[in-house]
Amino acid sequence: FLVYSFSELEKYLPRELQSAAFKVSREGLGNKETVQRLNRFQVSDPHPERLDLTVFVGGPVWALEWCPLPDGATAHQYLALACHQGMDQQHVFNQMYAGAGLVQLWDMGGLDYRSRPEAGPASLVYGLGQEKGFVWQLKWCPAGAWEPPNTSRKAPFLQRLGLLAVAVSTGVVSIYSLPHPQALCSPCHPDTPGPYAIKVLTLKLGASKAPHHDKSGQVLSMDWLPEKPHNIMAIGFYDGTVGLWDLSSCSSLLRVCDPSNGLTLLPYRCFVAHDNAVRALCFCPASSQVMATGGNDRMVKLWDLKRLYQPINVQKRNLTTEVCWPLASPGTFHSQEISYASRGLTGAYYNDLGYRNARSVFITPRTGTVWSLSFSDWCNSLVTGDGLGEVIFALLPDFNCTNPSLRRTVERRFVRRFALSFSQSPEERPAEGPSTQTYREAVENYYLHFSDSNLQSFKNYKRRAPWKRMKQTEVKTDLDLDRMPLAALHKVRFNPNMSCHAWVASVGQAGLLRVHCLHNMSGSHINTQLSALPTEPGGQEEEEQ
């Protein structure tokens, strides 16, 4: 891991120097916002009342994750993301792509739940340049990898922020031990170009590759084991193979030292989960031997890792884009593409995996593709981001106690949905809008309009404009597939940390990262739990993994 100058990093940076024109209107505020643009890596000032902010990261984003912190840690919140270098880059799953790319680490400031967030804007603290292709997925180690910034380390080792797994288009996953940003500029490690002892572990399918392919294709999904010691990683490939890696393995048959790529780890188990690409997978948070997968064969499967000859449960659905498994739920949440789906029957849904033999429940029916979803165990809530540019917040019931035999959908779900942010085409579009198929044509003819809901209160939400707009886009919106999807949102994420659980980040095709605070999801029970936590974790020094 080397520190480069800005001129040397130019080949890793996204090429777009200025964002598309956009404006932000906020519900309940009479002031009118003007159309504006942001330069590359520029951050808008946080709104003094709503606290939302906008960042232009330089390109379309398909990978976004918050850095997990221990409960009670009074530290800054960090976001890791990766974007394409060009706005019009297109990739297919059945090919491999190499090239330079950049993983960006953003310091979002002290988003502490117990106090008002800092007024200073976010900042790009450093980037991780790599030449293994563009990034499809990012995953932080769930716990145990963060060290307090004041941890004593012998040179040349640095205080560790976390372990980040990066899945790239060359079919490998690299795990980086990322340091705290202030450690790179500390007196013990002056800010000068030079090597630092940051270990990199590369995961390959290796000898367990499919017999009809030289390689198993791109990595499209992955997940860390949510249970301690988080030493197992599952990775899904284009050819339908799922591999399991033991990161703590000392076997000489699995650990291979390659002079060019460093330490390479091979899987200890592989199995064919689907007939086509494994688009999504996740471990059960209550059992390290249970996993759910979703593939391009339109199947959603439940696996017992001790008996891989046959899945436990198989259900045929539409194309799955993402899946998550809540901590206290007998089922999973899935998001879907509009391919093979009837009108009005796509979106995000809850899928019972056979524990109560309940039917699938639609949470957010949508007209367009739902590219991403994120669940918060602190709020028992779900957020989704779709191809129309709308972020939908759904406050969910306890599915363990809901009677599935009720006929009326509203009585069975008790789901309260609310639109957070909506991106749309300009109000000043021509009478006969051109078919903009490139980014340059789109930004010349359109601008983005972000219409933010008032997140400080959900009072009379069904009578407010965001709710009515959301209901109209469920089944009545016409999709223009010939136009550049400038407003599409590819990733949305809840902050997983307890002290900042009310913060949501969303980003997509335009490269405009937006961060919102769900003020109304701050309850007294959370304050009681936070007051019982220490202000700093019992930071014990951990060894490099």
TrEMBL record:
Family matches, as SMART domains: WD40 (SM00320)
InterPro entries attached to this UniProt entry: GTF3C_component (IPR052416), WD40/YVTN_repeat-like_dom_sf (IPR015943), WD40_repeat_CS (IPR019775), WD40_repeat_dom_sf (IPR036322), WD40_rpt (IPR001680)
SUPFAM superfamilies: WD40 repeat-like
Keywords recorded for this protein, A-Z: Nucleus, Repeat, Transcription, WD repeat
GO biological process: transcription by RNA polymerase III
GO cellular component: nucleus; transcription factor TFIIIC complex
Positions annotated as WD repeat: 271-306
Subcellular location: Nucleus
Pfam families on file: WD40 (PF00400)
Protein name: General transcription factor IIIC, polypeptide 2, beta
Gene field: gtf3c2
